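Render this sequence as a predicted structure.
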Amino acid sequence: MSAGRAIAATIALASLLGLLALLACRAAPAAAQRHERAQSIVDAISARHPELARLTLHATPTGATGSRILASNWPNKIGKPSDPEDLEVLRTGVPIELAEGAHLDLTSPVLDASGRAIAAIGVTVSGFDAPARQHSARAIAAEFSAAIVASLPLW
């Protein structure tokens, strides 16, 4: 290859790499903004429901290989891998309820228009009346799911 062609090829490669870097930089803030919208939904719902002990959103972010917590009212949970029951709900689309003393932990799917589970939400409520805990957890899960679907894409 001549020196001129080598230089042209190097410039073309550098231009391509620069373009790819630019696209990657633009994609990262977009993903961060979507996660911020998801977090704002968590924050708003948490503020309306004092019985909430924990609220989380689990999904596989675009370009990632595994489900993780994208938003939570427990900031130290964000980014952690999803637990087995969260993965089970994502796989089956069937909610799981676990009694934890004076708490009820409900993991519920977020379904797209075709009925496919696209995310899982974890709702843990406290209180001493089991039927009230169950009613509250289910109502919060429905509210959270509707807000997520109305705000897609969030991940």
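Summary. The chain is about 50% helix and 25% strand. The CA atoms of residues 75 and 142 lie 22 Å apart.
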